[in-house]
What does this fold into?
Amino acid sequence: MQVVYEDNHIIVVNKSPGEIVQGDKTGDTPLSELVKQYIKEKYAKPGNVFCGVTHRIDRPVSGLVIFARTSKALERLNRMFREGEVHKTYHALVEGCPERPEALLENWLLSDGRINKTFVSDSHNPDAKLSRLEYRVIKRYDRYTLLEVNLLTGRKHQIRAQLAATGHPIKGDLKYGARRSNRDGGISLQAHRISFTHPVSKQPIDIELPDSPTPADNQK
It folds into this structure.
């Protein structure tokens, strides 16, 4: 676990592929517990330590995750996420080379919880949700392309499903059609940048990771 920002109310960590943000049926130790332990040890806090989960990213995805250190920050961040006031930018390394250097993708997505997968559907399906994202090409490689992705809606597996539907699945994402896995079991999708107004101080916060996925990362 790498801490990239912290103050009295929030803490932002860089999640590695394979880590889970919040406890689930696997019983694996989640990031929320690691953050609690970090705070407890660093500040020698007695008793229970508060650590509120404000949002999640998929287990095979890496990148920035915000946790709340106080109930006030958690309540306000939850509202900010609901109202779209937290802006996240992803970097995705996809197979092949999309023809358009930038585009708006719109699809109707339908999630199947039984197999934990999202499918492109059509507007006539009452359970499908309109999903929108924007991408632009950052760099082209021989067999892969690095994209910057901005989510305009927040659906389950949205980036993974929509990019796969264009014929360019994310590197390592076997579930959505990638040709081979990454050595670490993750996929080449990173929550690269996050910007928001601090829930307590009201100061602008803008955090960006210094690196991005590359074709050489975790090649198998």
Observations:
- The chain has three helices and eleven strands.
- The mean pLDDT is 94.
- The first strand starts at residue 2 and ends at 6.
